[in-house]
Amino acid sequence: TEPQPVQLPPAQWRHRAALFVQRCEQYLWTDAGQRARTYLRQRGLTDETIKQYRLGLNPKFAKGGGGEWGLDRDVSRAMGVTIPRYGVGELWAVNIRRLNDDHTPYAGENKYLQVTGGSVQALFNCDAITTGTAAIIATGGELDAILCQQFAPNSVACVSIGAEGYTLKPPFRSSVES
User: Fold this and answer.
1) pLDDT digits 0-9 by tens, 97-110
2) Is 103 left (phi over 0), alpha (psi -120 to 50) or beta?
């Protein structure tokens, strides 16, 4: 059977998530964001690439009522590097690479957590796929796709499904199949 299409999160969620992404972007470039920036640079990312992909830093865990996000459940936001998932002009999800309290990389299980309410099954960096794309490289995670895209020629799109075990669903499946 054909998989059901990925559903765009509610407009209210997208609005609140966009504000969250903006605040986290700004926080990353403060003195308090130094360790997180160092972590990203040690992964090979340049400041230009970090800014291009709107990476940020959520400085502390937060959980609260989902009503202001348009949800009927609490919204959790882990502490860590925020990775917004934009595609076809919309914000679909915000993934977070967890950090320890001292802002060093978390090494336990569930290193990546999603802000509640997003659709992580949206293909990360899908907008890099154009009619002029000669090749598509799929990576295991968003930070790997960002690093790949940083060094790839313009005719190559580097994307990520998000994690092993996820499958592409329409409309993202059709963008890769065409």
Assistant:
1) 999 998 889 999 99
2) left
